[in-house]
Amino acid sequence: MLNYLDKLKNTDSGNFFLMAGPCAIEGEDIAMRIAEKIITITDKLQIPYIFKGSYRKANRSKGSSFTGIGDEKALRILERIGREFGVPTVTDIHESGEAEMAAAYVDVLQIPAFLCRQTDLLIAAAETGKVVNVKKGQFLSAGSMKFAVEKVKEAGNNKVILTDRGNTFGYQDLIVDYRGLPEMQGFGVPVVMDCTHSLQQPNQSSGVTGGKPELISTIAKAAIAVGADGLFIETHPDPANAKSDGANMLHLDLLEETLTKLIRIRQAIL
């Protein structure tokens, strides 16, 4: 995976790389359909691709919200996608004990933003030898993420990605400070912009997080313009009925058009 990480930063096409997929693994059929559609698009556009899907959602606002279809069942779906389509896969882990389990099925372990300061979790992920994608906490500055990078590297793993997902703005909104992307690139790791979670409107009184998906393209364009190495986009063929984070997902039918426009921006700044 180290060689693949190098390719993400230096592709022949000069394109950014993409982490995309549903928020959560809802079932095998829909996960396979989403993966196939995205891979068709990324192959056509020569965009390096990592399939994203959470095998379990452990940080829902309400206790009654969907959390998953079962850990092993979801992880096996991720494994199948990676094997059959020949792409790397990424999933979240939430506790140290999950690192080794998830690493048996996926290529990249993702540390959720709320947990990016959890030293034991970062070390456990690092010790699997997998690529570790650390999401920047919405409560942290970009500069403070150097300590997360150091924790992973000091555990003997140099395969680190940092992902920005906005900063807390008041109680129920987020805002993106694009100065943070080049600042985090200064730590010598690829930097990704999460174009969907950065548009969340958390802490709603309903207990269901809101969002502004109509601005996904705006966030992505700005990120590419300032030189982001990659983009993170959650996408679904029916966001209104997605079981997690539907309020801030990109409709799958809009993905190709969005990526095509972003490639033009990327080519303009190279």
From TrEMBL:
It is found in: Cytoplasm. GO terms for biological process: lipopolysaccharide biosynthetic process. The keyword Cytoplasm applies. It comes from the Bacteria. GO terms for molecular function: 3-deoxy-8-phosphooctulonate synthase activity. Its main location: cytoplasm. Gene3D superfamilies: Aldolase class I (3.20.20.70). It is an enzyme of class 2 (transferase). This is 3-deoxy-8-phosphooctulonate synthase. It comes from Pedobacter ginsenosidimutans.
